[in-house]
Design goal:
Helices cover 7% and strands 53% of the residues. The strands form seven sheets. The chain has a 30-stranded antiparallel sheet that branches. Strands 11, 12, 15, 16, 20, 21 and 25 form a seven-stranded mixed sheet that branches. A five-stranded mixed sheet has the order 1-6-7-4-5. Helix 1 runs antiparallel to helix 2 and helix 6 packs across helix 7. It starts with 5 loop residues before the first helix and ends with a strand.
Amino acid sequence: MAATQNSFADEATDEVEVIQVTGIRSSLVRSMDLKREANGVVDAISAEDIGKFPDTNLAESLQRITGVSIDRSNGEGSTVTVRGFGSEQNLITLNGRQLPNTTGSRTFDFANIAAESVSGVEVYKTSDASVTSGGIGATINLTSFKPLSAPGLTATISGKAVDDQSTETGGVTPELSGLYSQTFADDTFGIAISGSYQERESGMKQFLQDQGYRASDYTNTGWGGVPAGEAGGSNRPTSGIYSNPQQPRYVIEERQRERINGQLTLQYRPIETLTITADYTTFRNTIEEQHTDASVWFNYAGDRSESVWTGEPNAVPLIYSEIYDINSPADLRDTSLTVGAWGREEITDSIGLNIDWQVTEDLVLTLDHHSSKANMEATDPRHGTRNNVQLPSYTRTRSGLDLTGSLPGIAIGDIENFNPSTMRLSGSWFANDKYTSEIDQTQLDGKYHLNSDLSIDFGVSVNTVNNRYRHTQVQRPDWGGVGEEGDFEDINWTEDTILDKFDDSTGNFEGTATQSDYDLFNRIFFADFDEIINAAEYADPVANVDGLYGDCQAASGAAAGPNGEGQFCASTQWDADTNRFTEEETTAAYIQANYLGDMFDMPFSVHVGLRYEQTDVVSTASAPGYSRVEWNEDTSTSVTGQTGIETLSQSADYDLFLPNINFNLDVTDELRVRAAAGKTISRAGYNSLLGGTTINTGGNLSGYTGSSGNPGLEPLESINYDLSTEWYYDEGSYASIGYFKKDVSNWISYGSKQSDIFNLSDPLNGDKFNAAVTALGANASNEQIRTYIFENYADDPNVTPNFDEDGLLDGGSIVGDPLTDEGVVFNLNVPVNGDTEHTIDGFEFNVQHLFWDSGFGGIANYTMVDSDLQYDDSSLEDTEALVGLSDTANLVLFYDNYGFQARIAYNWRDQFLSDKRVNGDLTTPIYTEEYYQIDFNVSYDIPAVEGLTVFAEGINITEEVVRKHGRQSQLVFETTQTGARYGLGVRYTF
């Protein structure tokens, strides 16, 4: 084994050595044996054959384990939650080694690694001094194949065709995998090579409220709210809080992914007591995405009397409506088509060396080192890692959102006028992220047997993790629109409908006074992104960016920067935007005593350990300064005028003692009782540790926001208690029940800190703005206020009105004036440790049963989790809460006999808090609703050809939909529909 931790090494070796016994039943027996012989509470999954894991996705397999649930991305298992603790509170290792990632967090994405390259997974739920710290929920160790564990020649190759039902434009894609292992020189030298190649084409249809719902006290009648009384709608709340939608949209995306995994393992055993293992592992993912969405932006203006409210004192709109007073084309609002296309490449490389030496009969030493690096960057430097180009059609006479249906219904007026001939160009941005993570980890472990009953585990380690996050954004803040209608008319557009792509149905504004005037948004247009960009370059008459141009050159004759730079591409000038670096070095030492004995003729084992860790954190950050605020659009301002780069370096350190005790008692040969206590930690995400301040360059009447990291964050600390009983009543069959309790402190939440960083002036808070409000009244709209300023302050050097070809006012720019306007105060979200301890506890129930020699069997488990740490839905501030806490259940039925294997699995997860957004009046909890999924796979060994197997599989065969909502179930944030995925393949083992 390349693992150095004693627990990993001791418990994984037997599993690998018996792997040539194949099939579902034998896999379950091996997993049960590992659980039974473990020092603490451990669950495991074993490969059913060389290169054949129970599921094609590791996360999908892990969710079958008691207490484990998963989050899915693009219809595929991505991250895991264990006992209510989300992905950042669980440590993932490969052969006992910490893995770098490309997300900026401590989360590992299981979609990056092919299941075919893994021989087993072990989930350690109780603490052990020899195991690297970092997982409060669990430490999950992935093990790979080692050639000396299976002497001789072993090889397998498989191919599969996959049909993903979620894609509108893709087709059947291939997956190939293989493993070759052979030993030489009397089984003293071995080589194993494995690899996999996967193409996948998938898609997504989504209702998305990514801007969120603005929540405010019922007394708010200004921006972000509605008028009091009947003018604010039916049942307009008169107490508590209420929430308004901002920008609902229908999203249609297509995605193409290429995944390549490979591993080379060399082992040499010159003498029986010395094994040297060298290995190289690589994961490579390339993902391309195409995005199109259609949306409306609520202006919090117009006639809102047709809105309908419910749920006071935490009120939500069943129907939210804005009907505008249209007296001229200038009064029409925009309906936006947003397009984007981007890609990213993720590469992880790891090289390691492990030396396992049995020095004497009583002493074993293991030295392990690995250097690993992960990198994420754009596949196309021009497009960056995400982008957004908005093409508004100023034809909207009303806006509505109906939340009474299973799918939220967006409506506008005069939808027939929303088409390419009426579209023009507004704002755009091209974001470019680059993540780099490097880990150098060295571990020396030992085990010394004092006698047959007592042994000592000991070790030291040094783990250095370097993370660098770089970000740029080339943004044109022309959100009020530029160019002319028809600038995009000559593009090769394809028109399509929207609502028939969803299985759910919308409401229809039933009961409103003007129901027939609400046109459900059922129209969208698609075109090649580069063709749109080419037209956009010539549609924009003047180059206008927030201080940073792209790396590309503008098209000939198009608006450009001072040196011909383009506006419609990404930048790699990291020091001109955000460039942050964090180094985290942890030095650790541990000792653990293991004792075997008898108590009243009942065998027992006790394991008592102590781990000490010292962690030093250094963070360096560079970010730009800004010189002014411009009010270019009715509803928002832009912070712009970059002035230079500011660099800040911060450091922090902490040390911890982590004790543990595990006690196991064999009451009978079949009945084992376990008790455990220990202390574990979970470190803050790397993004939270990054120093420096980042501001959101868009502001509005709700204020200005930003965020700042905190390198001084201390890890979450948990005192854990476990008590379980396991009954192994027959071969391959057992039942277990367990109770766990975790007292967790140092919870991380976001506090708000006010800052006048950059000393900017706010055009929304000064003499000109106040004069307009005085003249027009407190209920004046932003558009009316801007018009008043343009008409009355045209000679002010900070006021620049625009006029159309007929000489009519057509928007313009108002710049904050330091002489007459108040200063901008940013509300910065800063992660901080809380001082309150909270308890999470629960029960785990599990039954695995093989029905004699019939070939039939089943698994059923259920996890109940509870906590006093719940989000306060009625609070307008962020509150401490545990993301990911939920009950889970699994039911698996299978048959394995006469060369035929079949399995059907049902997985259920109750509603849980999946995110906490902190952003002024958009601060909110986001809950993922109750969800279940049904998967199956079948295989048949062809009798005529030994080693040849054909198989088929289905994922999410009932095509379930993932839904997320805010403070109340009616406040829908996301409805994501992917679809089923089917595979048909063949495998040959020899």
